[in-house]
Amino acid sequence: MSNKLNPLSVWALAAGGMVGGGIYTVLGVVIAVSAQWSWLAFAYVGILALTSTYSYVFLSNKFAESGGAFAFLEKTVDESLAGSLAWMLILGYVLTISVYAYVFGHYLSFAFHGNPLLIRLLAAGVVALLIGLNLAGVGKMTKVEITIVSANLLMLLALGVYGLGQWDTTKLVAGIEPRPIWSSLFGGAAIFMAYEGFQLLSYEYDKIRDPQKYFMPVLVSATAFVVALYVIVTLGATFLGGATSLVDFKEIALSIAAKRAFGTAGVAAITVAACFATAAAINSTLFSTAQLAKRIAHDRELPGWFRHTNGNDVPDRSILLLGSMAGVLAVIGSLSSLVEAASLVFITTFGIVNWLCFKERDSKKWIPCLGMIIAVITGLSLLLRLAISKPVPLAGLALLILLILLGRPQLLKHTES
Description:
Layout: H1 7-19, H2 22-34, H3 38-63, H4 68-76, H5 79-111, H6 116-135, H7 142-164, H8 183-190, H9 211-241, H10 243-248, H11 253-298, H12 316-332, H13 335-360, H14 366-389, H15 391-416
GO molecular function: transmembrane transporter activity
Pfam families: AA_permease_2
Keywords: Cell membrane, Membrane, Transmembrane, Transmembrane helix
């Protein structure tokens, strides 16, 4: 029992899984889309995050096993469909890791007045370092992650509250065109990946102390806290930095806000927080994704190649492949494209989980039903936005998903033969 995660640890890891890369990554992106309604964008998709949290916990408790969306689909619908979703989910995690690495490079480089080459080297370097730590068997450092999360949450909350004390609504549109209220729909869709992270705890279900009693209130309260924190930080940081500055420097939006408020000391504090938070998010996501790939391979929905482990009982091939893919994307990708592609994957996944909860739940069906409706509206909004503004990346993502759906059965047949 002593090795089990207690409620406080679960709460911290869930909140940290979201905030670790979330607000550092997407603040400038959402302001560029929604301007003065950015706070509403976070609140709106926060409802989808809350319903999805409820659905994940209900299904985890119902089946009483680790595995997340893959296990839910496998138990309720079809193994083949579960395998296809799992492949897309792994793609989403790879995109997410690349975003975290991209932002890590920008925040650290900004503090040292670096250039674009340094940014890319730092992004690739942090992924390589964490691949090495995971292969060495020290990838999952729960106590360290909880310490980082606690300090990170306190710093972000302090920055947001200080910014609210400088209340000035003109800063919300300073230097940019005001947006209509419905822009919050598109802004929220574009940055939904900021709420990715809580569901990683569903992969650790068997390591949680008394989950039937604690998992629901702990995970739902962690998500609710993060929704409120995002709203506070979005308003506070914009009051401090001004909309145009946060958009122009969207990769380091919080550093800009901290510099305006506290000068060099503020930049130093945010840089340390951002680097530790994004590195912890990369680490936990890479570890959990590799373990998920191993589980899926054991169920023969991924090639058996992914089942291989090294002397430290670490799925080394999964770590190397997934981490390397994320590192390459961090070097060659752009922030908005990576964020929006990851958001689309998680909107789809969370929508499916809400649908499964709706099917399996006998009461309170309105909660997953609300999640399904918001997921459909948000997903269609993001598809429309990408079709207009980024048709080539959207076509590439669509082709990749099509290859997964059509090519996966043939690949599995070939590799298992």
